[in-house]
Structure formats: C-alpha cells, structure tokens
Amino acid sequence: MNASLRNWLLLAVALGLAALYLFPLYWMYVTSLKTGSEVFATPPGFVPRDAQWDNFPYVWSVRDMGSYIWNSLIIASGTTFLTAALGTGCAYVLARYRNMWIDIGLFLILMLQVLPASLMITPIFVGFSQFGLLETPRLAVILALTAKTMPFFVVLVRATFMSVPSELEEAALVDGNSRIGAFFAIALPLARNGILVSAILIFMQAFGEYVYSKSIIQSPALQPASVGLNAFMGPNTNEWNNIMAYASIYVTPILAAFVLLQRRIVAGLTSGALK
Amino acid sequence: MNRVISSFRDGKGFDIALVGAALLFLGIFAGLPLVYNVVMSFQAVDMFSLGTFARPFVGFDNYIAVFSEPIFWPVMRNTVVFVVASIGGQFVIGFGLALFFTLKFPGSTYLRGLFLVSWVMPGLVVGAIWNWILAGDFGVLNFALTGLGIIEDNIFWRSDTAFSLWAVIIANIWLGTSFNMILLSVGLASIPRDLYEAAALDGANGWQRFWTITLPMMRATIGAVISLGLIFTLQQFDLFAAITSGGPANSSNVAQYWAWDFSFRQYDFAKGATISVLMIALVMVASVIYVRSTRHEVRG
Question: Residue B256 is nearest to which of A118, A126, A270, comparing CB atoms?
Fold first, then answer.
C-alpha cells in the first residue's frame, strides 16, 4: 500500500470519527432550523427541508435574549479582566523562582482549582449575603467566579512565563531597567500570546457559567444566558426547535472563536495542564 | 519608606506584591468560604439565623442527620456509578482516539484539535443538546438504536429511573472524552520512537508493544488523566441541572447536586454545607494524587 493511499484512508476514517463525535452540534443546528411539527417527525429529518431562519429572531425577542447575552458578556468580561489582572503577576513570580515557598504556593493554587462550584456556592452565598454583596449580584458572581478561574489561569500562564528566558530580563536589569520596567517591557510582551489564549479560555468558561449565577442572581433581568436557557427548558417542553435556536445563538460565537484559535488553544492547554 | 518603594521597584517587594495580591484575593473568596463551610456544618442554620455569625453549635448533628437521610446511600451509590462510568468511558474512548491520531496523516493535528469543542462549550448548552437527543419518543438516539436493531422499544432516558443517571453519564462522557484524548496524546508523543523501533527489531507485535512500552511509559500520564477526570466529574453540575435535575425520584441525584439542592431548593444550608465538606475532602484527596503524579511527569 503506498503512502498517499494510506493517508487518504486515515483521513477518511478521521473525518468519519469527527463527524460522529460532532453530530450533537450538527443536530442542534438542524433542529433549530425546523418547524414545530417537523421536530416531531418520524423518521427525523437529517437535513432541514425548509430552513426556518425566522426561528432565530423569534427566540431572540420572545425570550429577551439580548438582556441575557448582555449579562453573560458582563460576567465573562469582568471575570476575565479580574483574573488576568491578578493572575498574570502571580504566574510570573511562580515561574521565576524555584524554592519551597513557591512549591507551597503552587500546591495551594492547584488545590483551589479542584473545588467544585456547586459545593463552594453554599458558604459563598451565605457569606456574601452577610456582607451585603448580594445587592450587586453580577459583581458577586464575578468575584466568586474569579476565585474559581484564577488557579487555572495561573497554571496556564506560568507555563508560558517558564518558556520566556530570564536572561532577557537580566540583560534589561543590567541596562538600568527596574524590575517593574523589565517585567512590563520584556516579560509581558514575550508572554503576550500565552496570556491572551489563557484569557480567552477563561472568557469562554465564564461565558457559560451556571451554578454561581443561578444561585446568586434572583432577578431575571440580571441573569446570564445559561440561566435563561435552563429556564426555557421546562420538564414538559415541546419547543425543541426554539430551544436549539437559543442554544445556537448562545454557543456559535464561542465555536467561531474556538475554530479560529484552535491551534493556540490546544497548545496552551497541553503545555499547562500536565506540567 | 524609600526602602519599601525601592524594594517594590527593584527587589523582593515586587514579587511579594504580585503574588500577595492574587493570594489575598484567593484567600478571601476561596479560602474563607472553605473554612466557613466547615464552621457551618457544625451549626444550626436556618432562614432566620442566615444573617448572623452567632449561630448555635450543634456538634455532629448535621453529619448524623445527613447520614441518616433515606437517600444518603442511594445518592452515594449514584455518585460512585457516575464517577466510575464517566471516567471509564472518557478514558477508553479518549485513549482509543489518541492512539488513532498518533498515526500521522495530513490534517490529523487539526482534526484532533477540533474534538475539543465539546470541552469549551457551556455545560448548559451541552446539557440542552443531549436533553433533546435523549428525548423518549422523538429523540434521535432512540431512533438510531432502534434502526440499528439494538433496542426494540424506545428508552425513556430521562424519565425512567433505571436510565436517568445513564442519560447524564452519556452526556458527560461526550463532554470529557476530547480533553482526555488531548492529554493522552501529549503523553503518547513524549514516548521515544526508538523504543518502538528496538522492539520491532526484536520481533514484538503491535499488541506486545502496547502492553510493554506504551502502557508502562504512560503510567504517569494515565494517573494524571484519571485523577483530573475524577476532579472534573465531581465538579459536573450543569448537565444534571439541564437533563434530569437529579430526578425522577432522586434516581440521578449525586452528591454535588444534592448539596446544592439542600441549600438552594430546601434552604437547608447546614446540610448543604455538611455534604459539601464531605465531598470537598474527597476531591482534595484526589487532587493530592494528581499533584503527585504530575510531579513525576516533569522528568525532562
């Protein structure tokens, strides 16, 4: 068997596997384009016969999606900004030194990374209510969520800083730069890509966050799209085309960002997660 | 004062400020809740004492109450089934895919990366999609399974107590397989090629090479992937909220959902905190194992 035939065969198998694995996504888009009765047709239609593009503006306005998506954006932006602002410097220091204290700090951060949100929300909710933080529920979610996302961010960005040679900073110090100067002029620009990719991952995670928002934010006007989607799915719902349209609108920006940045996201993830 | 400023600009002070800000934040918003959780698990908490710190201490009453809940053991059993089945499924499928993608062909890296979309999607969206795929009368999974002759009658995945937990497990396996695969691919790529060449020269077949080279060389990675799997599975909440809400009749209720349910459905924050303490202790043990296995991973 020659090499190119082998390559084509393997590629075909890989495409088949990918199609099988990504079928749920395809099914979401196909269902979102069906009419209410087409959804319940047997056998189900695997290609939309008469694509109902109107489903999208309909769901957007009926479910007041603008408000939900806006709240998701606020929570995701706030969390990403706070995480990056606090986490970058921390990751830098943890990457530059190797001693017992750094090991202890890293260990503590790894420990915080594993705490399940649905278990942490009980003390966070009670504590926040005692300090009046529930008055500003979106801010409360941002604060709680940042504590959840920062460990992951620090682990990823630390791996990036480790790949920036410290000799460059030492040279800047010899040239008369201060530590602050060397950090901002040398280390940060060189680690920019890694920081950006990690920030995007945090943004995606915060954009889809559910537990904290569901528990802390009572007013529908302030809830993010994840809570809105769950409210849409009652136990006896039959509006599956509209629910899938909601899900499509919600998830498509994330999918687009992922496909565009896929190579970097995968590289960033694999460098941080195992080291 | 000058010394403090110059240390901040040029010495240890700079490092301490950078780490300190992050650790202070984490201490307040993760460390304190952790401690407060333990405190609350020993207190009587109700809607009236929610606003005060001075609640009566009740010793181990909350723990006794939680252990004597009639659904305590069913929920623990569900948690174990959920964790074992999810990790098993994710790992086996993920390992299979990772091995397949070690065969280099054009586009293999890109296609492999594409699988990771399942992992970056919001959990609620994944839950919504599977909720629809697993629907009883009109779900596409039932259609496929009956079409292939695997089942005769539709399975009511979400409303049959025998299957509701498995509905969430199927969705969770789909969600986590890609992450397993990517991490395992990294481990596979770090095995030196010449080991395989030497084994091939000695006449070892593919199966023998897998058992004597791949698996032993992957031990640290596998340990890390499985403990990460345990950590992620115990964090899984969104799929339960989206697919079954722990029902019907608690047949798909697991510890991390039960704790939330006590606090935010029944407003019994003391019991919610108690279950949380128990589960967090378990997760921490898993993460110690994870940290130890990654320690071995960094060997050059």
Answer: A118
Q: What is the mean pLDDT of chain A?
A: 88
Query: What's residue A261's pLDDT?
Result: 86
Contact B105 A244 (CB under 8 A): no
Q: pLDDT digits over A195-232, tens only?
A: 998 999 999 999 999 999 999 999 999 999 999 999 99
Chain A residues inside the 8 Å CB shell of B283 = 114-116, 119
Task: Calculate mean pLDDT across residues B7-29.
Answer: 83
Q: Which of A118, A235, A247 sits opposite B237 (nearest CB)?
A: A118
CA angle (A145, A147, A148) in 5-degree steps: 60
Closest-approach residue (CA) in chain B for A131: B51
Answer whether B95 touches A (CB < 8 Å).
no
Closest C-alpha among A182, A127, A121 to residue A148 = A121
**Chain B neighbors of A128, CB-CB under 8 A:** none
Residues 148-207 of B with CB under 8 A from A: 174, 177-178, 182-183, 185-187
CATH number of the domain at B61-297, please? Answer: 1.10.3720.10
Do residues B114 and B182 touch, judged by C-beta distance below 8 A? Answer: no
Q: How confident is the model at residue B3 (pLDDT cuts 50, 70, 90)?
A: low
CATH class of A71-224+261-273: mainly alpha
- Residues A140/A142/A145/A146 CA torsion (nearest 10 deg): -120
Backbone angles phi, psi at B48, to 5 degrees: -85, -35
